[in-house]
Design brief:
The complex is a heterodimer of chains A (462) and B (345). With 462 residues, chain A is of the alpha/beta class. Chain A is built from 18 helices and 10 strands. Chain A folds into 2 domains: 264 residues, Rossmann fold (3-Layer(aba) Sandwich); 130 residues, no CATH class. Classes of the chains: A alpha/beta (462), B mainly alpha (345).
Chain lengths: 462, 345
């Protein structure tokens, strides 16, 4: 997708003045990307009026004049559905915004008064913030770019726990019989690919995260096309060279060709158009959901995130890199849905998040990129209370569950690191889900959105 | 690691009212029951009452002399009264009564002085506690915020305090509360302190520049510096007595002489330049500016030591911010006599 020259020039001018930022909101499906973006737009829109942004200095000091949605630069991409999202939150009873099914973009212009008036600073400055939303399932395809079919098949086979194997049982039973050297049978491939897609969908239902290829889960416009009819070959023990030498009509070569096509025609454009040029990043992780789902899925999430974060460019920015090869020079990792546990557990949530992302964090530290870990709730759905129970004061949450039942509950402690295997068998976790609070002001209630905004763009708003 | 607590459901009705406090019965545990070391209940206490610091140095000798002198004197004078009364020596009695009241007044002021010294110490304690707010729970942080409010003598309906309370949310951690405290309670005082330092050091600079006598200069500077430290500390809620003032002043000077040396080096070039410029204007103006800069530095040091929450490197006021104001005041001084001089021509 080439952009017209004039638009590119004006973008470049803005970028050279460092008045334009692209924010990557990264998160697997169900991590809360859409809620985060809706809340971000809402908070910035209402900054200085109703929004409670006390941890964002520019808003606290009353210098932030607000934000406006601009016409997005890329007319071929749908606009981020902010108004439908807000409408569903304002509904009676309130609902969460619909999960994202395709890519959408949003451009915000923030206007603020600079903190210090100098000769060259204008009275009112602006900052353009580019945001975009996409289905979390597709994000998982980015690590595919580093593989070829052989190494991908092997990487997929590596992490098959008992639970995962059970979910893929039908596909495994048939595909393990396959001989890569035989002639490809179209009908058989189609049924096997369907079985694989079914397995992926089931694994997603069961809470697994590391599911490739992502388009199998949410095909979009590719539904039924032969490009989606491939799958990894389990148990490849023949050396790569002999397999590569197989004729084109062989099973292995057919699958490899489709994999390559998928990689080049589906994943690469997605990466090139949307994921290469970022300045700031926030990684959203649903830690509580992973705890609810169990240890195998927790590991799975950790692995998925670890692979995912390799797809972004991190490094120091300078004028040149800003213009021609933007790099992420600051990032936040956030445990979302912090309102689903009591405030005293937030430190544990953050520690667990850091444990989950230990490996990528080490790489980032090595690259000297500032990272901040925080727990947040983009749209707060509960109220923190204190209960006198059995003569002891204990914190509790008041809210409405998704089923519409009003509850006052202590959702349980969050461990500061992953508990041992026997704990899961005895007890496990059961963090409830809540529906959003009914609206009482224009600005959405939140937990630490202000701190996140400050970390991500606060340094440009001085 | 202890195992995390499981989920518990409570009734959705309003939280139950606190029930009547009951005394716990005698209860015997079997030796086989599992138990663990008793944890200190850090949550319940807002602040540790005592900290592990250096043992207090008491001047027993001085206390002995003072207490002994006061007691013996009082007894001596008091026992003399009946004699004087019987012999109708009214003057002697008047002297004795006068002596007793003098001792009483001395004692009272001594006690007051001790009280103020104690307050200075409490201030140090509060400072240390506020510094470690990030490690504390939200509840403790709130308790400390109330302490700070009392220290700064803010009323319950003070706009800054109200703004702080509005900004506080139940999910804020200690660190976030510290940020809010800095902004809502301390930043207004900081601005006031800044204005005070600029004004007083500017006035000192002018005074030195126009005063004809060096000896008077010195006395003026000393007196004004003391007054400035005094006002600064009052701004941050510290009432100073004689001894506490002396202690703080000594602390400030000590800090300037040792800790401030490196800072002095970084500022020196700029200082030299402005002094050189001022010296060109007139020798007196140069002297005035030098004194003003010294006085401003003293003020900044005192501010740094009095402020209940330690400055972060970014918000710390710098001498460079004040230098321009000083320079402007000195220049004004130079300009103002100019029309008068022209008139006299």
């Amino acid at each position: 997708m080439r952009q017209p020259l004039s638009r590119e020039l004006s973008n470049m001018l803005e970028r050279s003045r460092d008045r334009q930022l692209r924010l990557a909101v990264t998160g697997l499906s169900q991590a809360g990307k859409t809620a985060f973006l809706t809340s971000l737009v809402n908070q910035l829109r209402h900054a200085g009026v109703e929004a409670q942004l006390d941890l964002l200095p520019v808003a606290r000091e009353g210098r932030l004049l607000g934000a406006q949605r601009l016409n997005q630069p890329d007319l071929g991409v749908p606009r981020f559905p902010y108004d439908p999202g807000m409408a569903s939150l304002r509904d009676t009873p309130p609902r969460w915004p619909e999960p994202t099914r395709g890519i959408s973009e949003l451009r915000l212009q923030l206007r603020y008064r600079p903190a210090q008036q100098g000769w060259f600073t204008p009275d009112i400055a602006h900052l353009t913030l580019d945001l975009f939303d996409y289905p979390g399932e597709w994000l998982l395809d980015l690590p595919l770019l580093q593989h070829d079919f052989y190494s991908w098949s092997q990487s997929q086979a590596q992490h098959e726990g008992p639970h995962r194997r059970a979910l893929f049982s039908e596909w495994l039973a048939e595909s393990e019989q396959l001989d890569p050297t035989t002639e490809a049978d179209e009908a058989q491939l189609a049924t096997l690919a369907d079985a694989y897609a079914l397995g992926l969908r089931r694994a997603k239902q069961a809470g697994f995260s590391d599911l490739q290829p992502g388009r199998f889960l949410l095909p979009g416009e590719l539904d039924g096309a032969p490009v989606l009819q491939f799958f990894p070959l389990p148990g490849l023990d023949t050396p790569k060279e002999t397999l590569d030498a197989l004729p084109e009509s062989s099973l292995y070569a057919t699958l490899a060709a489709r994999f390559r096509y998928y990689q080049q025609q589906v994943v690469r454009p997605f990466y090139r158009d949307h994921f290469r040029r970022f300045d700031r990043q926030i990684v959203l992780v649903d830690v509580l959901g992973a705890l609810n789902a169990g240890p195998e899925r927790f590991e799975d999430l950790s692995r998925a995130l670890q692979q995912l974060m390799k797809s972004f460019d991190y490094g120091k920015r300078s004028l040149l890199t800003r213009l021609f090869a933007p790099k992420i020079d600051r990032l936040a990792i956030a445990a979302t849905k912090a309102d689903h546990v009591t405030p005293d557990q937030h430190t544990h949530v953050v520690q667990l998040l850091e444990a989950l992302l230990a490996e990528p964090l080490k790489d980032l530290r090595f690259a000297d990129i500032p990272v901040k870990a925080l727990s947040l709730a983009a749209i707060r759905a509960t109220e923190a209370r204190e209960v006198l129970h059995d003569g002891k004061r204990t914190p509790a949450l008041k809210g409405t569950t998704l089923e519409g039942e009003d509850v006052l509950v202590y959702p349980g402690d969050v461990p500061s690191r992953l508990p041992k295997a026997d704990f899961w068998q005895q007890q496990g976790f059961d963090f409830p889900s809540f529906r959003p609070l009914p609206a009482d002001s224009e600005a959405l209630p939140h937990i630490r959105m202000d701190a996140a905004i400050d970390w991500l763009i606060g340094d440009k708003l001085t | 690691m202890s195992n995390p607590q499981p989920r518990r459901d409570f009734q959705t009705e309003a939280p139950p009212e606190p029930t009547q406090e009951t005394l716990r019965q005698h209860e015997r545990f079997a030796a086989t029951e599992s138990h663990q070391p008793l944890a200190t209940q850090a949550e319940l206490k807002a602040l540790p009452e005592e900290t592990l610091g250096a043992p207090r140095k008491r001047r027993w000798g001085l206390m002995f002399a003072l207490a002994g002198g006061a007691t013996l004197g009082t007894v001596e004078l008091a026992t003399g009264i009946p004699d004087a009364l019987s012999q109708s020596q009214w003057m002697a009695m008047a002297w004795q009564l006068f002596g007793i009241s003098l001792i009483g007044l001395g004692g009272v002021s001594l006690l007051k002085e001790l009280g103020r010294l104690r307050r200075l110490k409490r201030h140090d304690q509060l400072r240390a506690n506020l510094a470690e707010l990030p490690q504390r729970s939200s509840k403790q942080a709130q308790a400390m915020a109330v302490q700070l409010k009392q220290q700064l003598a803010l009323s319950n309906d003070d706009p800054h305090w109200l703004a702080f309370q509005r900004a506080c949310q139940p999910h804020h951690s200690g660190e976030e509360i510290q940020t809010l405290l800095r902004y809502h309670l301390l930043a207004p005082r900081d601005r006031e302190a800044q204005r005070l330092i600029t004004r007083m050091s500017g006035e000192t600079a002018i005074m030195v520049a126009v005063s004809p006598l060096t000896l008077v200069d010195m006395a003026l500077v000393a007196w004004r510096s003391l007054a400035m430290v005094d006002r600064l500390s009052r701004l941050y809620g510290l009432e100073l007595g004689y001894a506490s003032r002396l202690r703080l002043f000594r602390h400030v000077l000590h800090n300037m002489a040792f800790a401030g040396a490196s800072e002095l080096a970084t500022d020196a070039s700029m200082d030299m330049l402005s002094l050189d410029l001022a010296g060109r204007l007139s020798a007196r103006a140069g002297q005035g500016l030098a004194t003003g800069l010294l006085s401003a530095r003293l003020g900044l040091r005192a501010q740094r030591l009095c402020r209940p929450v330690v400055f972060t490197p970014e918000e710390q006021p710098k001498l460079a911010d004040l230098r321009q104001d000083l320079w402007r005041q000195i220049k004004r001084l130079d300009k103002e006599p100019a029309p008068a001089a022209r008139n006299s021509d």
